[in-house]
Amino acid sequence: MENLLSNASPHSETLIEERGKRIKLAAEVGLARSSGGRLWARALRRRLHRQRKLPQQTCIAKNSTPPLMKEVPLVADVTEEKEEVQDRMRALQRLVPGGEEMEVERLFEETADYIEALQEQVGVMRALACLLDGIESTDGDKL
Amino acid sequence: MSSWRSRSRQSNTSRISDEQINDLVSKLQMLLPETRTRNNDRVSSAKVLQETCNYIKNLHREVDDLSERLAELLETTDMSSSQAAIIRSLFM
Questions:
Q1: How far is A31 from chain B (nearest CA, A)?
Q2: Which parts of the sequence belong to the IBH1-like N-terminal domain (chain A) (predicted)?
Q3: pTM for this structure?
């Protein structure tokens, strides 16, 4: 994290991009660690672990909940409207980490929790940006 | 009610009724104030799910944008070592 905050590096577009990616990753790791018991958080930790972005000592559930349904179950009567609902549910499954392994009821619970966690994440990052903005403007000669 | 609940937890259940879906969707709607309507109009399940997906995508996008912005701010901000220490501790 040291070089994240140093000003000694040369100004360049790619450096900032690189830093942005690391910040985003830090945000993801924070998110993954924030709600230990949640399925979406476990799925996120698994993903980060696979990508080797998460240090080993973080607890990874060995036996995650076995997938109850790989696909959202078919509704009793398939009409156009029901098709649409199914499509939307599948889209939701893809957005929520681990969603594809969840049954419908659990998916909805996890979605609500995931959204709350994301909102908090955004709140923290916004506050941080304001803080940095504040530091910058009190320095005087910046516009 | 309890019978369908226990059935839905088994992996060999392959069908779920519209009623159950609508029920769950309206519960989701209650949990997410963003999807509630100002009047009490009935919103379709598909619409609620769509709004939910859009909302999540927006949040993802915000995280991306804020990450970029923070990266830029960190680049241009001249801060003391104690300020840097505070910020570093927030990341850990």
A1: 11
A2: 10-51
A3: 0.72
